[in-house]
Amino acid sequence: MSSYQQHALDGASPVDLVVALYDGVIRFLYAAIAAVERGDVSGRRIAVKRALAILIHLQARLRMDIGGRPAQVLSEFYASMFALILQASLGADAKRFEEVIGCVRSVRDAWRQVAADPTVGATAPRISHFSQPAPETDQPARWTA
């Protein structure tokens, strides 16, 4: 990551960081599509490996004890995207990569809506790896994953 990219993420909320990770998955899947179109097997493998690494990171950071059902749904989503990416890579199938991009983009857009909510930024934890729960409030949750 360049120093510019690193600086751009300094001070980002946990939700902003999640959105950035989804953007990374999408970027690497587009790179995989370009590699398929060029017939570049090595390039496809590198791009797929990076997209899968991000999904593994996202899954590893889920807190099932705190997140409950939304965390379980996200875990299942990550597992299914992982499997679809592997299928697309094995078949060098650009259309399958595009399907995965559509799914990831939909969930990323939901996270963007969360990031745009000013009440989330005020209560979201500012700790690395999202390891602590957000402070409790008297207000009901306004979104679900």
What does this structure look like?
The protein has helices spanning 3-9, 14-38, 41-60, 64-90, 94-116, 118-123. Mean pLDDT is 81; it is low at 122-145. By secondary structure, the protein is mostly helical. The chain contains six helices and no strands. The protein has one domain (13-117): Up-down Bundle (Four Helix Bundle (Hemerythrin (Met), subunit A)).
Strand content range: under 5%
Principal-axes shape call: globular
- Count of DSSP strands: 0
> Which structural class do you get from the secondary structure elements?
mainly alpha
H and E string = HHHHHH
CATH class: Mainly Alpha
* Biggest pleated-sheet summary: none
Share in helix: over 70%
Quaternary assembly: single chain
Total individual domains: 1
Flag low-confidence runs.
122-145
CATH superfamily: Flagellar protein FliS
Can you tag this structure with a few keywords?
145 residues, Four Helix Bundle (Hemerythrin (Met), subunit A), 6 helices
Structure in a nutshell:
Helix content is 74%, strand content 0%. It is mainly alpha-helical.
Task: Set down the secondary structure blueprint.
Elements: H1 3-9, H2 14-38, H3 41-60, H4 64-90, H5 94-116, H6 118-123
Helix pairs in contact: 2-3, 2-5, 3-4, 4-5
